[in-house]
Amino acid sequence: MNDRFWRPISIDCIDPGLFPSVALYLKSTGNYVLYKNEERPFTEDDRRRLERNFTEFLYVRTGDLEEINDYLENNLTEILARDELDSMAKGRILYQTSVNYVIDVFESPEIASNLARSRKLIQHLMHYLTTDAHALESLQSIVGHNFYIYTHSVQVTALNLLLHEQLFNVTPDEMIDVGIGSMLHDFGMIFITEQVLDKPDALSQVEYYKVKQHTQKGYEFLKRNGLNSEVALTIVRHHHERYDGNGYPAGIKGDNIPRSAQLSALCDVYSALITDRSYRKASTHADALKMMREEAKGGAFNIELFKRFEEIITARKTNSTA
Ligand SMILES: [Fe+2]
Fold it and tell me: Which of 36, 40, 170, 300 has the fewest beta carbons under 10 Å from its own?
């Protein structure tokens, strides 16, 4: 059955008192099996039973998603405030809600102009990242339930918010723009065909040229469709620039590259390296940083900024494993 018709919902997100009446499915050996129909409410017993069986996700039909998204976004404050939720559970809920948002924007680009939705979400994400020492680790451990591009978009958002918060004196409004830009940084990929995106081997020159256009095309589309934050647009357009001028699309150099784009480039590369791809396995945190250090020494990144990046990411790692 086609996975595109189904969307995973973490069972932590299901608050029995508030959850809308939609049918829920279990995934069993690749098939979706009805768990409860829309008439029967989801109860605390359901949650306990599923937890005993180590079920983390139920699935809904994409046709029911609008209701689920409304529920998640309207009740996020109450859901996240529940005492019994640990860091992982909160991470799963925020990750889920963020991924739903990114998928929706990729599938229905006109949603990008509805900034109220992303603004609220990023405020929650920001609060979680700055108040929970395990947040980054929790978010990073939640992968494999969605396509790479969505996971990656949320991961870059989390990293970029945290880095901006720790390194620069950024106003809350600007922080939201950093979040929106990060969430949508690869949005221009919707203009690239799937054959090119999913190709397991090296890209031809023509294909690589096409992939590189995602920065400029994403920027132009979002600008035309009501995204007017300079910071957000800069992240979308310039997250592949390199400090030595060897990046794209503009090939700008050094500190002519806005700082938000420089940080986004670091977060983007790090996230890509620590994730499994069709053409290579994920690197460990240490290996990813080692590769990036070499690149920084070779001129690709501002070496001072890279060192700060490394310190912050590594401190978070140590925090959460301690
Ligand atoms: Fe990109």
Answer: 40
The protein residues having their C-beta less than 5 angstroms from ligand 1 (an ion) are 186
Owning domain of residue 52: 1-63
Q: Which tens digit of pLDDT belongs to each residue from 46-76?
A: 988 998 988 888 999 988 888 888 888 888 8
Distance of alpha carbon 123 from alpha carbon 114, whole angstroms: 15
- Asked whether residue 81 is assigned to any structural domain, the reply reads no
Evaluate whether residue 164 is within a structural domain: yes
Q: Write down the mean pLDDT value for the chain.
A: 87
Interval between CA 86 and ligand 1 midpoint (Å): 32
At 278, the pLDDT band (50, 70, 90 cuts) reads confident
Backbone φ and ψ for 150, nearest 5 degrees, come out as: -75, -45
Q: How far is the CA of 204 from the centre of ligand 1 (A)?
A: 18
Q: Does residue 147 sit in the same domain as residue 233?
A: yes
**Total count of domains within the chain:** 2
Contacts of 267 (CB under 8 A, 6+ apart): 155, 156, 159, 160, 163, 182
pTM of the model as a whole: 0.84
Distance 186 CA to ligand 1 centre (A): 5
Query: Is residue 292 predicted with pLDDT exceeding 90?
Result: yes
Are 159 and 30 contained in the same domain?
A: no
Q: CATH number of the domain at 209, please.
A: 1.10.3210.10
Phi, psi dihedral angles at 80 (to 5 degrees): -70, -20
CA of 184 to the centre of ligand 1 (A): 10
